[in-house]
């Protein structure tokens, strides 16, 4: 496989990639329903639920850089954050008896519910 | 600009619950060089689906792939002074980006959409998560302080602070370390966790994925405990310029785009 040098930017749940001397991205990956895997030395890959054999591989300059990216990318999806929020909300509620989202007036929002939300 | 379209379309259409959905009429935007000509404003009825910070729109409710995508970052959602009633607009901080003018069926629908869209950004979610993380840390600290001093155990009815044995801190949800956000499926095995159509996740909340034991997960390291320190700062800086490009690419209905490419190919342009 040919590796091309790219500038890679994680912006919310998108991974943009650029040719190193260009200001506009040449592509993007939406990071939802994806899996980040450590491959061989300094390499990680991103693959998606519906096509798990297709891997987008990235080689880093160091073991540390590789680990940093893996950690960041694993937390990059909106869905990951949503689950974290639901978890924290639940924990706080169990410990304090209060729903922490009430003070923001968002406790009824569909996106924060434990169960499925109706449309 | 390339995009992992197939994955995007899959995310848009799979059974993971939408945060909001419904028909809206979308104003057709004219290109700038047409600005001098008077075109009657027209609207197209589309099926819109909001998932997280992404607003997808489809030609039909049953369409298998979206014809457009709006990334809701760096934008404001506001009521609109259009000739149409129940109109609202999504406008971006990036001045060059196109706005989206949408028309709902009625007052209630419009209000519901504006509310859902204005809280849809990733940044907003992140803010709330960080706030809750802090609150949980504080709750745990004050609980720990309470436990140090001798306490009579309660009659057992109290839900929270009295009985240390009930502390939920032992639960370490694997969800915090699992970047594999499968909906309804517990498996982290490649190929084994396609977005489920089985129960469609209707009856119950998504189960927490079990800790992956495969070698691929070995880099996860120690489990993130319930009271983790603030999540490490990811190298993120919201830049709407990138999204404008994505919008203008995706915003031109894909069909039109393909047609253009085909014409250009025919004419021998590269």
UniProtKB/TrEMBL annotation, chain A:
PROSITE patterns per record: PH_DOMAIN
A Pfam family that the UniProt record links to this protein: PH
Domain of life: Eukaryota
GO biological process: endosome organization; receptor recycling; retrograde transport, endosome to Golgi
InterPro entries, alphabetized: Boi1/Boi2-like, PH-like_dom_sf, PH_domain
Domain PH: 1-78
A single Gene Ontology CC term: recycling endosome
Protein name: Pleckstrin homology domain-containing family J member 1
């Amino acid at each position: 496989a040919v590796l091309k040098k790219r500038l890679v930017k994680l912006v919310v749940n998108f991974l943009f990639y650029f040719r190193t001397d260009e200001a506009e991205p040449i592509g993007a990956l939406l990071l939802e329903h994806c899996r980040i895997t450590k491959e061989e030395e300094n390499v990680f890959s991103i693959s998606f639920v519906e096509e798990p054999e297709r891997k987008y591989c990235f080689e880093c300059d160091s073991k540390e850089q590789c680990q940093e990216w893996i950690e960041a990318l694993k937390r990059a999806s909106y869905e990951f954050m949503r689950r974290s929020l639901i978890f924290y909300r639940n924990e706080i509620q169990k410990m304090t008896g209060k729903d922490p989202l009430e003070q923001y007036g968002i406790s009824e929002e569909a996106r924060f519910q434990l169960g499925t939300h109706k449309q | 600009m390339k995009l992992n379209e197939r994955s995007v379309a899959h995310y848009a259409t799979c059974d993971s619950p939408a945060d909001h959905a419904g028909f809206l009429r979308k104003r057709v935007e004219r290109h700038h060089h047409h600005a001098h000509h008077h075109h009657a404003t027209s609207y197209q009825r589309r099926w819109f689906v909001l998932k997280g910070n992404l607003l997808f729109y489809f030609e039909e409710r049953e369409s298998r792939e979206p014809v457009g995508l709006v990334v809701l970052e760096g934008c404001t959602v506001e009521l609109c002074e259009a000739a149409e009633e129940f109109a609202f607009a999504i406008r971006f901080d990036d001045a060059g980006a196109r706005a989206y003018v949408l028309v709902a069926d009625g007052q209630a629908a419009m209000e519901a959409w504006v509310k859902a869209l204005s809280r849809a950004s990733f940044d907003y979610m992140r803010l709330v998560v960080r706030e809750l993380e802090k609150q949980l840390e504080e709750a745990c600290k004050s609980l720990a302080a309470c436990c140090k001093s001798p306490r009579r155990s309660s009659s057992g009815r109290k839900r929270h602070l009295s009985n240390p044995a009930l502390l939920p801190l032992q639960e370490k949800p694997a969800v915090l370390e699992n970047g594999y956000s499968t909906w309804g499926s517990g498996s982290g095995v490649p190929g084994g966790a396609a977005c489920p159509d089985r129960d469609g996740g209707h009856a119950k909340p998504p189960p927490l994925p079990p800790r992956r034991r495969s070698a691929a997960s070995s880099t996860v390291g120690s489990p993130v405990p319930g009271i983790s320190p603030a999540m490490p700062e990811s190298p993120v800086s919201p830049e709407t310029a990138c999204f404008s490009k994505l919008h203008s690419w995706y915003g031109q209905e894909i069909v039109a785009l393909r047609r253009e490419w085909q014409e250009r190919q025919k004419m021998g342009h590269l």
